[in-house]
Specification:
DNA-binding transcription factor activity; nickel cation binding; Alpha-Beta Plaits; about 30% strand; globular; about 140 residues; alpha+beta; Arc Repressor Mutant; transcription
């Protein structure tokens, strides 16, 4: 635990299937405890947040998103968000992975702060399982 001097205890509630998947990954990766895995996950989340925060200037990129097709109201909300950012969204591709799981790929271009806003709005929706933003700078 580099840089950590003090430990704090927290309690969290998780759905059983999520905890089971997490425990399976911990076992496969050789973690000695859940706490070690949770600390590593939190560090990774913080790093990802810092990386996405550095998206600035004119950018071209892609948002990949996996979501539950059956989540009430989600499709309408995702469509509304994309329409609000129509000037930044160039195209999207929708694929049915399973009966209720969908993969969507959204091509985007614009100011990095706007692209980050789109990503965070999509990420915040209940039923969205994963969102990833990948961009490169547009060089003039």
């Amino acid at each position: 635990m580099s840089g950590d001097t003090e430990l704090s205890r927290i309690g969290i509630s998780l759905p059983k299937n999520l905890l089971d998947k997490f425990d399976e990954i911990l076992s496969l990766r050789g973690y000695s405890s859940r706490s070690e895995g949770i600390r590593d996950s939190i560090r990774s989340y913080i790093t990802h947040y810092q990386w996405i925060s550095d998206v600035k200037g004119e950018r071209q990129g892609v948002i990949t998103m996996v979501y539950d097709h059956d989540q009430r109201g989600l499709l309408q909300t995702l469509t509304e968000i994309q329409h609000q950012y129509a000037s930044s969204i160039q195209a999207s591709l929708h694929s049915h992975v399973t009966h209720n799981k969908c993969l969507e790929v959204i091509l985007i271009r614009g100011d990095g702060a706007v692209l980050k806003d789109i990503t965070e709005r999509l990420m915040a929706q209940k039923g969205v399982e994963a969102v990833k933003l990948t961009t490169i700078p547009v060089e003039g």
